[in-house]
Amino acid sequence: MNNSLEPQPVVAARGVRVAFGAVTALDGVDLDIRAGEALGLVGHNGAGKSTIVNVINGGLTPHQGTISYGGVDAAGGGVAAARAGGVRCVFQELSLCPNLTIVENTRLMHQGLTGFGWRKRALTLIRAKLDEVFPANRIDCTGTVGELSIAERQMVEIAINFIEVTEAPRLVILDEPTSSLDASLAEQLMAHVRRFVAAGGSVLLISHILGEILSTSTRIVVMKDGKVVVTKPVADFTAKSLVEAMGSVIKEKTHAATRTGANAAPLVVDLPVAPGSAFGFAARKGEIVGLAGLGGHGQTDMLLSLYRARSSNWRPQRPEEIAFVAGDRSLNGTFPLWSILRNLSIGDLGALSRLFAIDRDREDALGADWKAKTAIRTPDMHNPILSLSGGNQQKVLFARALSTPAAIVLMDDPMRGVDIGTKQDVYAILRSEAEAGRTFVWYSTEMDEICLCDRVYVFRDGVIVAELKGEEISEEHVLAASFSGEAA
Ligand SMILES: Nc1ncnc2c1ncn2[C@@H]1O[C@H](COP(=O)(O)OP(=O)(O)OP(=O)(O)O)[C@@H](O)[C@H]1O
């Protein structure tokens, strides 16, 4: 670890205030980021983390307060001043152009890649950085971004921001950088962050996965309702005290193995063994079935084919009996021009209609109910969906599926970006809904969530290689099956 800290912070925010209409997103934030540190930034959904990132990145000019880079006041210099101060940012909503190649996206981010042979240089740089950060990745850098999975897009965007063309990055901001990465890719990234700060760089790491914050940060800042409430070295925190500082408490886990009678429930999905698979796929009424394994090994494909199939293997024959929570919210989840309420109520318009028209009172009541249940932070459910923070948008997608009468809910890693307090509330809702007879098929990249399932199928290379039940469901067994194809 580099202890020779610079006298001037790489970035200093003083008294920063930002308001969006009636919502005060930042309410007098002070923040220093020094060379050689990985500063962890945590807080509930809507606490103001992405807003302070946008201010530091120069994309948003604060209504009050100042930002300086290396002791030099940015004075409204925007993105150019941030860039000159060595600031790079990997956004929560990925910002690559899907119709351009990875090489061309690298060029867009690095204006220094000009002149004869820039493509070759860009290709060499991005390939080398991808291999450095994510060893053994199989990304073709000559292909377009649109052909990549969401995890691969996240990997490319991260690698692009660590590249050095004319100048080395001084601060790399990572806003929920592992939201689409599985555990092993996330660990590769965290190892890279540790190496980068040990060599004198700085990182601002935002995550709702407290394990990676605690294992990677040198110092942690906790935000709540637009304010910094605690700043302390990582050694002064435990997972419990960190959650408490965010205004939540860790609830006791109830493992699925304690449930009885699950094996006797009727089958609602029963698919034969696919070629190459060791197991068929089945789900019973009231069961929470997890899909695990390394990301991109067929879990999302399984969910999509389940959703599309509705064949004779399915008991529910009507499409409204199956709900789907999309994993890529900006691509497949939100209707960006609609209000929060309309994004929620579209899930089950039939239940809200009277005399062939939507009953607005019923729609409002539905919105109020789910706003309270999942703590959607907004002053008004009629506001545009894009006025919500990322985690709050995700809650709306979740509420859309759960507010329908669907007997089966398919979930493609639906908790990404959701804060720990809300996650725990949603887990409790899932459990009680399952007990009331709903079936969930849940792909998750978070091991804690996989461990909440009744039964888990582990995927590898597009096929099911293991089935784990009750007490067999553990990180050790899932990892063993993910890598070797056999449960330990
Ligand atoms: N463009 C906008 N218009 C209106 N309100 C906004 C806008 N952007 C952010 N907000 C509001 O500002 C507050 C802070 O949002 P921000 O995105 O910074 O939260 P966050 O801590 O990053 O949350 P998350 O963990 O969900 O990503 C929220 O109440 C959000 O609804």
From TrEMBL:
One Pfam family linked to the record: ABC_tran
The entry's keywords: ATP-binding, Membrane, Nucleotide-binding, Repeat, Sugar transport, Transport
Ranges of residues in domain ABC transporter: 11-250, 252-486
SMART domains in the cross-refs: AAA
Molecular function terms from GO: ATP binding; ATP hydrolysis activity
PANTHER family per record: CARBOHYDRATE TRANSPORT ATP-BINDING PROTEIN MG119-RELATED (PTHR43790), GALACTOFURANOSE TRANSPORTER ATP-BINDING PROTEIN YTFR (PTHR43790:SF9)
Homology family: Belongs to the ABC transporter superfamily.
Descriptive protein name: Ribose transport system ATP-binding protein
Source organism: Allorhizobium borbori
